Amino acid sequence: MTAVQVVFVLLSLVAVVSALLVVTTPHLVHSALWLVVTLGAIAGVFLVLAAEFVAWVQVLIYVGAVVVLLLFALMLTRAPTGPQPDLTVRRWAPAAFVALLVAVLLGATLVAGFQDVRLDLDQAVVGSAEVTGETVFRRWVLPFEVLSVLLLAALVGAIVLSRLRSEDGDD
Amino acid sequence: MTTLAVSPLLSESVGDFTKPSIEYFDLSPLLIIIGVALAGVIVEAFVPRRLRYVVQTLVAVVGTIAALVMTVFVALGLEPRGDNAGFGAIAAEGAIAVDGPTVFLWGTILVLTLISVFLFAERHLEGGVTAFAGQAAALPGTEAEREASTKGLEHTEVFPLMMFAVAGMLLFPASNDLITMFVALEILSLPLYLLCGLARRRRLLSQEAALKYFMLGAFSSGFFLYGIALVYGYAGSMNLGDIAEAVSGTIGADPLLLGGIGLLAVGLLFKVGAAPFHAWTPDVYQGAPTAVTAFMAACTKVAAFGALLRLFYVGFGAARWDWTPMIWVVAILTMATGCVLALTQSDIKRMLAYSSIAHAGFILTGFVGLNAVATPGTAELTSLQAVLFYLVTYGFMTIGAFAVVTVVRDSSGEATHLSRWSGLGKESPFVAGVFAFFLLGMAGIPLTSGFTGKWAVFTSAWQGGAWPLVVVAALLSAVAAFFYIRVIVLMYFSDPVGEGPTVVMPSVLTTIVIAVGFAATVALGVVPGPVLDLAAHAGQFVR
């Protein structure tokens, strides 16, 4: 085992264990914080796989924005912050089964699709910002641009569904 | 002295980037619709409220017409490509295939959109406001809601939302790789989820419909994504052409490919409302505002069948022996579910929903017939042409029928319960007659477009060797005819219950919609030739 492999295995272990804690802890806030650890460890895994750009995006968007948003939602909605024994519902077993199935499915895809692919870590260009940028802005430019339309539509919809007009109604 | 020089690696890489080539002319219908949606958002922000409705309607109508005109120009400019009787080009770095079937579907979707805009803009039926919630954020039954309705508030955001959905619908059947297809699927779905929840009357039902559609839709998107992952793992590419090459190079069945095909099929069959993925259809069609139901039933089905055709004919064409048995089963299940369950419905919108499920089954019959080559000069049709033609006939009938549903009302809004429709023939022979005609069209009686459409898909499936399926389909059409005719009997030969139904005179907008739907149903039934020729000239998919 090389040093890189050891780091990879350690990071994956951290990710898996903390992911289990996310769904088993009785504290909502703890759950959110364990999510930070999971996502951070996955960012580390991306780094080891030479996907530096994806790793930093993961840190910025998921660890930074998404979890912070989650915590804000917890704070603002007066969700209970103490331990809650009823967070684990009766249907956890089928849910776990579905999760396992998804894991097997994705794992099988990876193994079947990429088992012969070897990364040359010395000159890897797979996940650098340059390669990602070129792919997104050349090969995938249309879907990428059109996705912004989707976000705009979601934004309009969210405003329509949530905003009460002011009293005088002249806006 | 050389410290100022940029590092050679960096300068080289910056110089390397070549601009992606975007064929603006070929994409113009899509770009115009996106532009119209963006213009709608800007109108919403800057135009005073009393003018918004008029401006939004005008922007949507003019934009749709402009996109339609550009579609015609794009269609005239298509050039032959490849060796398989296809016309068109691959545009936007391989993301989009602008070919004959694409342009045909674009035209169909845009015409149906145009008349749907009229339905959206109808204001007479609710006493001067549109049929959408005055203030969606106000909880049903609260003071805020009453206040919104007394002030006559209305959400004009429905027009840009609709245009966003149309943009997704145009992109969906044209997408030439799986990522673009997924993005299009999301863009067409998300605004529809929102629109479903915006009914002015029966808001709880409407919100329930929106939530159900959203949850199940997100679930099916997940299936679609997993399918993409599996197919990518198998083919090593998202591009439909590359996938086709990988598929035709495979000997024997690959579990990855089969799994991928199955999961992608689940995602698409959900959108077309095929059994066993149809459970959302009746609830959503019933709960959504009827204008949205009409738009969704017609345009979503056209777009989703276009994508289904492209994905399976282009991407998985060489593996057809693996997926045809699956589609056979789904087609039979869909027709049976639609026809049998429609018999038991007591709500007109639910009945039309089951009828649309049955139609999805008939279209699948044509789709799976796989009659790839037609003899030129004869009446023979390829499966692709037959399905394209059926989609046109289905779209006009459906929008017309739902438009009639909006005008039959009682004090609480639309009278959708079937018992309220009894005796409609005496109250308004004209409206009852038009509706009866749409029902006969859906049942597939000769001299209506429903008959020519069914004839087209059944003959192409028969020639493709799927005759047992055609026999089943014909038998189930007979069952389907029963519940359509039951409504006609109800309208003409039963006495009204209580006060009976009333027909509210709509403005010219809904009248246009009903007239266009009626005219198309007659015209395509009596002289189907021109549109059939158009479908035949669309040629094959390019890749």
Automatic annotation (TrEMBL), chain A:
| Keywords for this protein | Cell membrane, Membrane, NAD, Quinone, Transmembrane, Transmembrane helix
Q: Which organism is it from?
A: Nocardioides iriomotensis
Name the UniProt record assigns to this protein: NADH-quinone oxidoreductase subunit J
What is the annotated role of this protein in its UniProt record? Answer: NDH-1 shuttles electrons from NADH, via FMN and iron-sulfur (Fe-S) centers, to quinones in the respiratory chain. Couples the redox reaction to proton translocation (for every two electrons transferred, four hydrogen ions are translocated across the cytoplasmic membrane), and thus conserves the redox energy in a proton gradient.
UniProt-annotated location(s): Cell membrane
Q: What is its EC number?
A: 7.1.1.-
Q: Name one GO cellular component term.
A: plasma membrane
What Pfam family does this protein match (any one)? Oxidored_q3
For this UniProt entry, the molecular function terms from Gene Ontology, in alphabetical order, are: NADH dehydrogenase (ubiquinone) activity; quinone binding
The catalysed reaction is: a quinone + NADH + 5 H(+)(in) = a quinol + NAD(+) + 4 H(+)(out)
Which InterPro entries does the record match to this protein? NADH_UbQ/plastoQ_OxRdtase_su6, Nuo/plastoQ_OxRdtase_6_NuoJ
Entry superkingdom = Bacteria
Membrane topology listed for this record: Multi-pass membrane protein
State the family named in the UniProt similarity comment for this chain.
Answer: Belongs to the complex I subunit 6 family.
Q: Which residues cross the membrane?
A: 6-25, 32-53, 59-80, 92-114, 140-161
